[in-house]
Amino acid sequence: MSIARVTVLITALSVTGAAPAPPPFVVTYLRALGFVSSDRPGGVAGGSSLVTPSVLRLAQEELGLSPTGVLDAVTLDMFSQQRCGVSPTWLAAPSPPGRTRRFALMGSRWRPAVLTYKVSVYSLTVPKATVDRTLSTVLDHFSSSTKLKFAAAVPGDTEWNLDIRFTGDDHGCSSVFDATVLAHAFPPEFGGDLHVRDAVDFNTTSLTYVLGHELAHSLGVHHSNRADALMYPVYRDVDPLSPLLSGDDLRALQLLYGQA
Ligand SMILES: *[C@@H]1O[C@H](CO)[C@@H](O)[C@H](O)[C@H]1NC(C)=O
């Protein structure tokens, strides 16, 4: 259903006061991100009754939208964008109190002075050299602004801290990648693995952004509702020459790992 059609439908129904059934992709989106329980029976059709104004307000807040609880055209458009698959309801530690902060932390951090990493499964489409070069650029952004240091695992190593793999949609995680998901990652206390959806047609710009975003999750940073932050949940095209980490991202990372 097109957005224009949905708008017409909402307008028509608001006159009679009845709420329209949400499009199925909205139910899938809210379920996948944990805003509505995926344990409830009824599939997508049964799930539409769970899409209440309070659920919509939470989903709008995650994206920094005005929390109206109404499925308006802007909200529908944002729900259909490519984004990170990490659930906002998962492990969210409260943001530190005090001044207005938009970032959140996941509740754990790494202790080793040097974190080792390895791409254990490469992409079937992006060349290995591109992946290696992009990853190294991303790691430089993090190590130049915090006390973090990274080292590639060497042949023979059987363990490393950050495991990066390009995966199929159904890849052994409880959350299967759907068409709008680019990647997801686990916080330090769950091992810090990064899973990048290999079905995505990445270029260097989008891969830099996605690896950077997921790496921050692997380091313990949760989503930010600031649209200019790398940790904003929805993908946006950025100028490859602009700094990868915004002030908001840096505050979160430096709180965990100190300033360089
Ligand atoms: C890179 O991919 C993104 C996301 O698909 C796209 O929006 C952007 O236009 C692409 N950039 C280039 C330079 O091809």
TrEMBL record:
Alphabetically ordered keywords of this record: Calcium, Hydrolase, Metal-binding, Metalloprotease, Protease, Signal, Zinc
> From the UniProt record, which GO molecular function terms apply?
metalloendopeptidase activity; zinc ion binding
Q: Which GO terms describe its cellular component?
A: extracellular matrix; extracellular space
Which residues of this UniProt protein bind Zn(2+) 2? C84, H213, H217, H223, M231
Which residues does the annotation say bind Ca(2+) 2? G191, D193
Annotated cofactor note: Can bind about 5 Ca(2+) ions per subunit.
* BP term (GO), one: proteolysis
Q: InterPro entries of this UniProt entry?
A: MetalloPept_cat_dom_sf, Pept_M10_metallopeptidase, Pept_M10A, Peptidase_Metallo, PGBD-like_sf
Q: Which residues form the signal peptide?
A: 1-18
Q: Which residues form the Peptidase metallopeptidase domain?
A: 106-259
Binding of Ca(2+) 1 occurs at: D198
User: Which residues are named in the active-site annotation?
Assistant: E214
Indicate which residues the UniProt annotation says bind Ca(2+) 3: D178
Q: Which residues bind Zn(2+) 1?
A: H171, H184, H195
Pfam families named among the record's database cross-references: Peptidase_M10
Required co-factor? Ca(2+); Zn(2+)
Which family does the record claim for this protein?
Answer: Belongs to the peptidase M10A family.
PANTHER family from the xrefs? Answer: MATRIX METALLOPROTEINASE, MATRIX METALLOPROTEINASE 16
Q: What is this protein called?
A: Peptidase metallopeptidase domain-containing protein
